[in-house]
Write a structure and sequence with these properties.
Elements: H1 6-31, H2 42-46, H3 49-57, H4 62-73, E1 76-78, E2 84-86, H5 92-95, H6 107-110, H7 125-133, H8 141-146, H9 148-165, H10 174-191, H11 205-223, H12 227-233, H13 236-242, H14 247-268, H15 279-284
Helix pairs in contact: 9-10, 10-11
């Protein structure tokens, strides 16, 4: 009888209500809500923990699981309580109708980037168009043609390095090779600065590792939205101690933030980039 105290009774009642809530939510989402008629695993329909298992525990394997589900259930499947996934070319025009049709990005998926104001993670249609317009000329054909010599110089560097290695017996990791190529092209094109990843004897394996760590961190941030703000508020030594794979993501964002600060400083002092301008300078000086 000593066990059945008022405190224990309240705890048991709370636990019972929680179980009823979970079971009721599962039944509703799996069998009665507006997406319940769409085929797919009932567990995925009931909870986001299904996605968590594949993306966080199995480190980004949900894409492969979705492909498997399509093989099992067909071209249109339900992959979460709130999402439908389509693998059918007949639906391309409906899914990607163009900018003339109002569409909203899915806030849940945008959380994984850990950014609030970047145009590619802005889910509101009108605000996304405004933010994207500041970068529109960077995405134009004329801009790409103007930058072709710089991009070609990076490709020439890769070809030169491959000729240097030819016949030496050195094994090349193609993930590192093309990751370095991409990083140097982006640096040259967007920031007027090559990171020289291709000049590294082993093609900068740390760069590929950073991208992979950022990707893994992104899956965790999507599932736990408050994690990144908490990490930013914590001392770096504590982040390294508790969640070390978050460090590359924080460093990644810090690097871009420093480039913005430097661009603002140069603008305030009346200094312009020498030669090719960079994306931050152009956006900050864009009158629109």
């Amino acid at each position: 009888m000593g066990l059945f105290t008022p405190s224990f009774a309240k705890l048991a009642l709370a636990a019972g209500l929680f179980v009823v809530y979970v079971v009721g939510l599962y039944i509703y989402r799996a069998f009665f809500d507006r997406l319940s008629h769409i085929p797919g695993p009932k567990l995925a329909a009931a909870t986001l923990w299904y996605e968590f298992y594949y993306d966080v525990v199995l480190k980004g394997r949900y894409t492969w699981e979705i492909a498997r589900l399509h093989e099992k259930y067909g071209p249109i499947i339900r992959i979460s309580p709130y999402e439908v996934h389509i693998s059918d070319p007949e639906y391309i025009d409906q899914v990607y109708p163009g900018s003339h049709v109002r569409t909203e990005k899915y806030p849940w998926s945008q959380k994984m980037f850990g950014l609030k104001y970047a145009f590619f993670v802005t889910f509101d249609h009108d605000l996304h168009r405004i933010r994207r317009s500041a970068f529109a000329h960077y995405l134009s054909k004329a801009s790409l043609q103007r930058m072709e010599p710089g991009i070609q110089s990076v490709v020439d560097t890769m070809v030169r390095r491959l000729h240097e290695i030819k016949g030496t017996g050195q094994i090349i990791n193609c993930f590192d090779l093309f990751g370095s190529l991409t990083g140097d092209v982006i640096g040259q094109y967007a920031f007027a600065h090559s990171y020289d990843f291709l000049e590294d004897p082993d093609f900068s394996p740390h760069w590929h590792n950073i991208l992979m760590d950022v990707s893994k961190s992104g899956h965790l941030v999507k599932q736990f939205g408050l994690m990144l703000p908490m990490m930013k508020a914590m001392p770096e030594w504590m982040v390294k101690l508790t969640i070390p794979n978050m460090i590359p993501l924080l460093n990644f964002q810090r690097g871009f933030r420093n480039q913005v600060i430097n661009a603002k400083k140069n603008i305030a002092e009346g200094r312009k980039p020498i030669g090719q301008s960079n994306i931050f300078y152009d956006v900050l000086t864009n009158p629109d």
